[in-house]
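Morning F.,

Quick status update on the modeling queue. The single chain you submitted on Monday has been processed. Sequence for confirmation:
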Amino acid sequence: MATQIKKYTKKDGSTAYMFKKYLGVDPLTGKQKETTRRGFSSIKEAKLALLRLDVEIAEGGINKRPTNRSYQEVFDDWFELVYKHKVKESTYWNTRIAFDKHVLPAFGSYKIKKISVTACQKQANQWAAEQPNRYQRYINYAGMIFKYAVSIDEIKTNPIERIEIPSVSSNATDIEEENFYDRDELLDFLEKMKDNFPAKRYTLFSVLAYTGLRKGEALALTWRDINFSNQTITIDKTLATGKNGTLLIQQPKTKASNRTISLDSSTIELLKFWRIKQKEELRKLNIMPSVNQLVFSKIEDNGYIYPRTPQTWLKTFYNHHKGLKRITPHGFRHTHCSLLFEAGASMKQVQARLGHSNIKTTMNVYAHVTKEGKEETADIFGNYMKNGKNLGQSLGQKKNPAQ
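Structure tokens below.
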């Protein structure tokens, strides 16, 4: 059957030409395939496009992959065929955001075969200058697409593997390292939060600081997860965001993140107080607590708190206390870890409590001590050599280091 070229009217009123081409039966699916090409300004242009398509089909068949694809086209294949089937839904959509904002604007429009080592080096340098705490992530993401292109014989080598990773100034990395409170800073923060803001906020940040939970783990907690008799809390789920901000309840970040940890007495008492307070607030709004009542929920509908809300709460807090050091919600996890080390906890104890699958994560990301700890290190060693006390005794170790 001969392919017909048809004239049609576009939305703006102008005339254009199109055609539908029957491609035959797909040998993989057994289904008939066709393609539609439109937007040609003249019959001649449409005929040339049809001739080129006929040649492509004759040379490679209907399933032949284009041989000169853009970085964007290879990314689309990788994201749909590979990455989405390897990671959790929240992970691949958050990764997609990073690609859309940083990687694809840099490389997306270029033919992947034409992207040179020099181009990758220039882009890596630019990311390092603009995003000193995240640039290595973007380099890694960009490299995933090149690596995939190598694996499917689209390119011969991965150009980003041959660049020199830029270094950044120590001032830039210090910003990330200081995303935690020392003992006095934490106690000051919690006192001001307790005195000036709703009990829910005070309870949430106290729990983050005294347990080391990730924000998503805390926002997914139900009262069933807390054993008041044994003074423990079980973490077996996390709240995350998917496509277009959809809220998702997922398994925790890693297998090791499924854990049960102990709670100190003051945190137990605070949670008991908050449970009573929460019931009172819900009763005033004629909301009946659900069977799996969330520990932290939106007051409007008793649903999940959006993951960015704690950051908004902190912003409001710091606007009222401009002199206080600012940290992120994740900084309270850093704080808990730092104070555990300061109190004498072992690397393995901290790894288990924070739910790290690899002790290298504990060592590399969290093995910094607070300013107080740095100043006391020499005295701790001296006391040990003089008196034979262990580090925990020298530091006055307690069950909860922030007390």
